[in-house]
Specification:
about 270 residues; 9 strands; alpha/beta; 11 helices; nine-stranded mixed β-sheet; about 40% helix; Rossmann fold
């Protein structure tokens, strides 16, 4: 198995990922709810065999196991594997790499890639991870691949976090906008990652042999709310945050105006 970048490993070994989608990061609950919503539109009825590649601490895996699916988590961080096993009694989990999966050919109904593309800086590695997902899918199976938007850091650090003016941060954001590579080396920021343009993600999905069904803007503009927690806790405001996301989820000109883009693809 290829070694994970030490800075990325150190970031995740802090253990923060277990709470990120549950409120550890302000817009994490919005990301979680919208990702589940979009995936749920395409999932056939359970039971399915689902491989959650880069599944982290098992948040999505637990949701799918509760649905009645057979879920197997693969993650390069041992802490995440242990957390995923503890998240649900019916989750199977192992340490592994998205570029070299241990599963046999055509053995899964669904593959989730809700993290691996973030940290594969080299395009060849991303294509390899997508090709592996396609290899283990049965014909007609669905793949869901998340990417961080090229402009996520610019929007978030300027509007929500208000940190773009701090020393060194604008230079990192400029590199991300110009090249896609974000080299987070400032406390409180994300780790080394790759930020996609929508058309770039679509091209990689298709080059790996998938039929691209759709690209979605996941969070919509709601991820930029400075007082996200108080808005999310209010039922009427939460509803409008979600409606706002749905309103622009497939608008081509809005696909990059989000924290995450979700590609939905099928193996023919």
């Amino acid at each position: 198995m290829a070694e994970l970048d030490p800075s990325i490993r150190e970031y995740y070994e802090r253990g923060d990922e277990a709470n990120r989608l549950l409120g550890g990061f302000p817009s994490g609950p919005l990301e979680l709810e919208r990702t589940k919503e979009i995936i749920g539109r395409y999932l056939p009825p359970p039971p399915l065999t689902i491989i959650d590649v880069g599944g982290g601490p098992g948040i999505y895996a637990a949701w799918l196991a509760d649905r009645g699916d057979s879920v197997h988590v693969v993650d390069p961080v041992a802490l995440h594997v242990n957390q995923a096993r503890a998240a649900h009694p019916h989750i199977h989990a192992e340490v592994g790499d998205a570029r070299q999966l241990s599963r046999p050919d055509a053995s899964a109904d669904v593959v989730l890639l809700l993290g691996p593309l973030y940290h594969l800086i080299d395009r060849r590695d991303r294509l390899q991870a997508l090709s592996e997902a396609r290899r283990i899918l049965r014909p007609g199976g669905w793949a869901f691949a998340a990417a961080i938007s090229r402009y996520a850091a610019l929007l978030d650090l300027l509007l929500r976090a208000g940190r773009l003016h701090e020393p060194g941060i604008f230079a990192m954001v400029r590199e991300a906008v110009e090249t896609g590579v974000f080299r987070g080396n400032v406390p409180g920021l994300f780790t080394t990652a790759y930020f996609h343009l929508p058309e770039e993600l679509a091209q990689e999905i298709q080059e790996a042999g998938f039929e691209l069904a759709s690209l979605f803007n996941v969070e919509g503009p709601g991820f930029l709310l400075r007082d996200f927690e108080s808005n999310w806790s209010d039922p009427s405001r939460r509803k409008i945050i979600l409606e706002g996301a749905r309103l622009v989820e497939s608008k081509p000109e809005m696909l990059a105006a989000s924290a995450h883009i979700l590609a939905v693809a099928r193996k023919s």
